[in-house]
Amino acid sequence: MTDGRSWQGNWVARLYERVRERGYDSVTAFAEARPTATLVALAEDLGPDDVAGVQVFRGLVAEAERSKKLTRLVRGQLVRELYERLPNGWPPVLDGDARMEVAIALGQWFAYTPEPHKDRVDRVGDALLANPPPPGWRPLGPDDELLRMLLPDDEA
């Protein structure tokens, strides 16, 4: 976690400099090379003391908006949240602690969802709770078949 230095200076330039130092031409390419890593883990890979997860996410959103791939980014963020909260995949039964972990993952996903997709993400969360995926389901990235069915690309 950073101590506030992440917001000092030109953090956008620093973010892109760090991404390029690691051999990537965009924040998206860097993040997609680690599709299950949390935003915090991505930030720590770029600079444990001066890059924050929210900065990585801002970079991802800006690039997704420019490339018209915001829905794909939203699916990718769900993958990250599920990997963090459900290390053994989707629970076989949604009761007690398992239900709480799923709720936290879906809540975090909603919190990181850009405004234009909030309603869709809310409906997808409801669908996952009403009709749970198979036990152990762990999408490997934003192109997971079930995720694409629940949240298809729609950008022009």
Q: What do you see in this structure?
A:
It is globular, with a radius of gyration of 16 Å. The mean pLDDT is 93. With 156 residues, the protein is mainly alpha-helical. The protein has 8 helices and no strands. Helix content is 58%, strand content 0%. Helix 3 (39-46) crosses helix 4 (53-67), helix 4 packs antiparallel against helix 5 and helix 5 (70-85) runs antiparallel to helix 6 (96-111). The protein has helices at residues 11-21, 27-32, 39-46, 53-67, 70-85, 96-111, 118-130, 145-150.
Distance between the termini: 37 Å
| General shape | globular
| Number of DSSP E strands | 0
Helix and strand composition category = mainly alpha
Runs with pLDDT <50, length 5+? Answer: none
Q: Strand fraction band?
A: under 5%
How many H/I helices?
8
> Largest sheet, described in full?
none
Radius of gyration: 16 Å
Question: Residue share in helices?
Answer: 55-70%
Instruction: Give the H and E element order.
Output: HHHHHHHH
Quick check: average pLDDT?
A: 93
Keywords for this structure?
156 residues, mainly alpha, globular
SSE layout:
Blueprint: H1 11-21, H2 27-32, H3 39-46, H4 53-67, H5 70-85, H6 96-111, H7 118-130, H8 145-150
Helix pairs in contact: 3-4, 4-5, 5-6
